[in-house]
Amino acid sequence: MSRKKHELSAAEWELMQVIWDANAPVTVRGVLETAYPNEEKAYTTVQTLMNILVNKGFLSRKKEGMVNRYTPAVRREKVLDASVTGVAERMFSGSFGAMASFLVSRKLSDRDIDVLRRILDEHDTKEEEK
Q1: Domain for residue 18, yes or no?
Q2: Alpha carbon separation from 86 to 82, 98, 105, 120 (Å, rounded)
Q3: Closest among 44, 50, 41, 42 to 68, alpha carbons compared
Q4: Which pTM was predicted?
Q5: Confidence of residue 70 (pLDDT cuts 50, 70, 90)
Q6: Which structural domain, as residue segments, surrounds residue 122?
């Protein structure tokens, strides 16, 4: 199976964010109105993307009367993990440390630095408890 089947395009990410945030089955119309309230995309475009997401295994579709209702078939965290791992593999020879170093070397806000410190402190505490 090709790698593309397991990856999301930018447009697919936009839709999946809306669907994950809904926490309930959604329709094409509902996703369209939430993701593109100013009609930036056509109904048929969103419908096509959602059908692609079904074919890729990211969404499940259930027919209710005349309407299809869609639900996530995979958790957001699983997709994020796979995507970040893919970036680390392709761009940093699989090194999460190298990727983290690259990200930290960019301009971080004070808030970003505080969050990062808190995460690292929590990680150190968990390691000490083992």
Answers
A1: yes
A2: 6, 14, 21, 23
A3: 50
A4: 0.78
A5: very high
A6: 98-130
